Amino acid sequence: MSFQSRIMFCKKGDVMKNKKYKKYTKIDSILEMPREVVSTDVKISIFGFNEILIENYKNILEYGEFFVKVNAFNGTISIHGINLNLEQMTDDDIKVTGKIDSMDFEEI
């Protein structure tokens, strides 16, 4: 069993962490593994106009009261709104809250 991987370095605070890019493979499909669990594909959940949960992100590129830009493995996600806050952040998930006006995707 083989899979393609490439090493990505992301800086979060003063700590460098190593994340690997992993694709959804044929063996994952045969084993019926959920795509979001075994790959680094980004998953975005939108809850009304006030909350967005982004899973499998790499790092935060820009953050402000009116604009948040998040880097993912396959592109960037830009969120525009008013009173935007980063409420929850883990190594893999980030929650953006506030009045969300629009969201843009830019694929690499």
How does this structure look, described?
This protein has one domain: Immunoglobulin-like (Sandwich). It is built from two helices and eight strands.
Question: Summary?
Answer:
By secondary structure, the chain is mainly β. The chain has a single domain, classed as Immunoglobulin-like (Sandwich).
Topology readout:
Elements (H helix, E strand, L loop, with lengths): L4 E8 L2 E8 L3 H5 L4 H4 L4 E5 L3 E5 L1 E7 L3 E6 L2 E15 L3 E15 L1
Antiparallel strand pairs: 1-2, 3-4, 4-8, 5-6, 6-7, 7-8
Overall spatial form: elongated
Q: Please identify the structural class as seen in this structure.
A: mainly beta
Helix-strand topology string: EEHHEEEEEE
Q: Please, how many helices?
A: 2
Mean pLDDT: 77
Task: Report the CATH C-level class.
Answer: Mainly Beta
The span between the termini is 27 Å
What low-confidence regions span 5 or more consecutive residues with pLDDT below 50? 1-18
Short key terms for the protein model shown above:
mainly beta, two-stranded antiparallel ribbon, Immunoglobulin-like, six-stranded antiparallel beta sheet, disordered N terminus, 2 helices, 108 residues
